[in-house]
Amino acid sequence: MAGPRLAVRAVIVEAGRVLLVNAWPGGVSDLWCAPGGGVPVGQALPDALAREVLEETGLRVTVGAPCLVNEFHDPARGFHQVEVFFRCTAPDPALPPGWRDPEGVVTERRWFTRAGLAGIRFRPRLLADAAFGSGRMLYDPLEPILR
Fold this sequence. Notes:
Blueprint: E1 5-14, E2 17-22, E3 31-32, E4 36-38, H1 45-57, E5 62-74, E6 79-89, E7 108-112, H2 114-117, E8 121-122, H3 127-132, E9 138-144
Parallel strand pairs: 1-6, 3-8, 5-9
Antiparallel strand pairs: 1-2, 1-4, 2-7, 5-6
């Protein structure tokens, strides 16, 4: 088994709403997450995150401080991922019309209030606290992957 995969995710909060994406090709799951993705070897975490957010949402962001570390695994596949979440701001938070994820992974992107998160499935468990909480650094320990 290879070592854990490193990924970055953006916590973008605008007007009391956090931006989430459905990153399941064809919408095969109702699970939502923060935009982001894997970090290629040799690319700085903020640079990888800005690139991933642009691809997955069409938004340009400024990457701020880390706010959450999450890890999950799929024991059946031997997959383990460590994600570093960063607070980000979008100078223009309007979601561009006609946008498409070039990789075809993200099928939806949507803004959610904290109350709106109660009506959806999302991961990691501490995402709402990272977006709307005290601002302290959080850690969400290893959990099985959800589909």
